[in-house]
């Protein structure tokens, strides 16, 4: 428990959740989720749309009450003592929650005031954050004139004004263009180097790999795997070799020829005449693969190397592709995006 | 981005417990009210519309319909209808409370506010209080227009002040109805369709524009017990220097009752509401 003056209890993790259960009508959004975030680390919660990531974040940030389970921020129970928990968190949701009618500066000072800072303190902290988030020149413009990237930066700055001990970032780069996404990653990196304890949700393996110390993979309301990005990749294979064969009957032969290179179970896509082989380290492997296929007399149309995607992770962990609420796989969604 | 890492480390985390007590309810409400008051002059279109609508109604009823409408007990339809237009305008003006809350909700701002250690009901109290200011601006424009077309206080200035206060309390009560609508509907479009439906019924089946005595007999009891009728009759009598009877007290009771019921419902709803 926290000490009498309400300061943090250093002996407990910043976030502890056990057996979180949440139902919406007949939909079981969470079926017993455990999550832990240690101080000054980043937990990446990775999963497809509808996996329960946002529901978990909403419970941890006191917006939703769980039907079962417990959750603590700095040892403060989020269900029994929501206001004390709120003083310890910063939340950046999926949609930049800024008041568009106010300037960037006014937005920051407003939230500072609602953290019960004095006006002077809120102003000083607002000015400081505007500078650090590269928004000083836009400080006196109303937020409705900001670009998507600027809004996200302002949103995160608003989440930090109360000096939270845990920052929650719910899909911080969803909907951003690649350039803004990279800028956001740099910014989060910087926060993490400053020692910010962070829980971030994402649909992108690449993002979790880049930013998180620990990853929890969540699917259909349960955590199906957890570990460091390295551990996860070792299980799943960091990279993929795709072999496209001319004749679909050759697929088993390709499998037999190449299984020695794989660090996991290769799988076929018959319709695509394709074999996907997970490998830990692709360096030097491709020439050997080509030679082996040649020796086996298999006619190959293409051999390609790519990074593991969320689909690969899900295939390796569950044997099925990652599906959203609508049953559309992430790969389909990326193709149409 | 600056070169140095952003220092929001655990070392300087506040993590102090939020202060408790009534005074924070007042301060947080005021902080939220100033958020809306700052934004008010930045949306002149909204202000112009808020002023234009009552002007149109005054012109429409006084000059267009006025010649064809006779009401019992009033020689001048102007003196009869202007207080009715006042009541209608403050009632219609309350929709901005619902629209504003629905917008905060749909844009995720309510999620942000609910994750802050503030007094949660302050979000709604601040919003409804700032809407009193908006209503006052629109009421002032309307009063000026009414005087331009020849409306006069025929009773005491105190009576006129009482009538005005009654209209404001009535507007405040309906602000809470709209707040609840905004929280339940969750989008500005839905608030618009829900609110306009009942606001039209409430103002046109009332004594705001015509005498309920001239309505069909089955409609009369509805019109007579409509709170819009009661507040209109009370303020109409007070502006015209006539005896309002018990109407001001009944109107006050309506305003208090609506405020208590809908403020309770709204605060309860707010505590469990999340955006999209």
Q: Could you write a compact summary of the structure shown?
A:
The complex is a heterodimer of chains A (337) and B (276). Chain A has 337 residues and is an alpha/beta fold. In chain A, 35% of the residues lie in helices and 25% in strands.
| CATH architecture identity of the largest domain in chain A | 3-Layer(aba) Sandwich
Number of helices of chain A: 12
- Helical content of chain B, roughly? 55-70%
* Strands of chain A, total number: 14
Task: Please indicate the percent range of residues of chain B in DSSP E strands (runs of 2 or more).
Answer: under 5%
Shape of chain B: elongated
Distance between the termini of chain A: 47 Å
Q: How far is the first residue's CA from the last residue's CA of chain B?
A: 32 Å
Principal-axes shape call of chain A:
elongated
Q: What would you report as the Rg of chain A, rounded to the nearest angstrom?
A: 23 Å
The residue ranges of chain A in which pLDDT falls below 50 over 5 or more consecutive positions are 1-7, 324-337
Category from helices, strands and their pairing of chain A = alpha/beta
Indicate the mean pLDDT of chain B: 89
Oligomer: heterodimer
**Structural domains of chain A: how many:** 2
State the major sheet of chain B. none
């Amino acid at each position: 428990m926290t000490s009498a003056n309400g300061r943090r209890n250093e002996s407990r993790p910043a976030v502890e959740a056990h057996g979180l259960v949440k139902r919406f009508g007949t939909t079981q959004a969470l079926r017993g989720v455990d999550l832990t975030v240690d101080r000054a680390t980043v937990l990446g919660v990775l999963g497809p749309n509808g996996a329960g990531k946002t529901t978990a974040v909403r419970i941890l940030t006191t917006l939703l009450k769980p039907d079962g389970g417990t959750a603590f921020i700095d040892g403060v129970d989020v269900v029994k003592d929501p206001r004390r928990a709120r003083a310890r968190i910063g939340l950046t949701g999926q949609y930049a929650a800024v008041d568009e009618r106010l300037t960037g500066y006014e937005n920051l000072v407003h939230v500072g005031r609602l953290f019960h800072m004095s006006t002077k303190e809120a102003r000083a902290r607002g000015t400081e954050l505007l500078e650090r988030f590269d928004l000083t020149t836009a400080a006196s413009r109303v937020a409705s004139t900001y670009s998507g990237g600027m809004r996200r930066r302002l949103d995160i700055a608003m989440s930090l004004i109360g000096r939270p001990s845990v920052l929650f970032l719910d899909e911080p780069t969803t909907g951003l263009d690649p350039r803004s996404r990279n800028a956001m990653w740099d910014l989060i990196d910087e926060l993490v180097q400053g020692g910010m304890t962070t829980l971030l949700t994402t649909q992108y393996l690449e993002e979790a790999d880049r930013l998180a110390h620990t990853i929890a993979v969540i699917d259909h309301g349960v955590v199906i795997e957890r570990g460091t990005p390295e551990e996860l990749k070792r299980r799943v294979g960091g990279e993929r070799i795709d072999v496209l064969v001319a004749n679909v009957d050759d697929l088993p032969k390709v499998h037999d020829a190449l299984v020695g290179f794989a660090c996991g179970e290769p799988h076929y896509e018959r319709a695509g005449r394709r074999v996907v082989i997970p490998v830990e380290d692709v360096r030097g492997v491709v020439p050997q693969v080509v030679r082996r296929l040649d020796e086996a007399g298999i006619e190959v149309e293409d051999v390609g190397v790519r990074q593991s995607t969320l689909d690969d992770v899900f295939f390796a962990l569950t044997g099925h592709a990652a599906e959203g609420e609508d049953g559309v796989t992430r790969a389909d969604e990326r193709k149409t995006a | 981005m600056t070169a140095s890492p952003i220092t929001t480390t655990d070392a300087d985390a506040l993590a102090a417990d939020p202060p408790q007590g009534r005074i924070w309810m007042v301060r947080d409400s005021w902080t939220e009210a100033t958020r809306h008051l700052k934004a008010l002059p930045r949306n002149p279109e909204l202000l112009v519309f808020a002023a234009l609508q009552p002007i149109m109604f005054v012109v429409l009823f006084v000059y267009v319909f006025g010649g064809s409408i006779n009401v019992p007990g009033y020689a001048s339809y102007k003196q009869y209808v202007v207080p009715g237009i006042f009541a209608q305008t403050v009632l219609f003006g309350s929709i901005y409370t619902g629209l504003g809350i629905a917008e905060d909700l749909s844009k995720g701002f309510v999620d942000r506010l609910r994750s802050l250690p503030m007094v949660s009901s302050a979000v709604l109290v601040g919003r409804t209080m700032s809407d009193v200011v908006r209503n006052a601006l629109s009421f002032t424009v309307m009063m000026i227009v009414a005087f331009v077309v020849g409306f006069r206080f025929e009773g005491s200035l105190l009576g006129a002040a009482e009538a005005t206060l009654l209209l404001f309390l009535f507007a405040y009560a309906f602000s809470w109805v709209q707040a609840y609508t905004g929280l339940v509907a969750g989008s500005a479009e839905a608030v618009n369709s829900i609110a306009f439906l009942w606001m039209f019924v409430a103002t046109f089946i009332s004594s705001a524009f015509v005498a309920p005595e001239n309505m069909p007999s089955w409609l009369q009891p509805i019109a007579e017990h409509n709170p819009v009728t009661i507040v209109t009759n009370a303020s109409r009598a007070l502006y015209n220097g006539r005896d309002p009877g018990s109407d001001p007290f009944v109107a006050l009771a309506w305003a208090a009752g609506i405020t208590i019921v809908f403020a309770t419902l709204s605060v309860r709803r707010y505590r469990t509401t999340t955006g999209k």
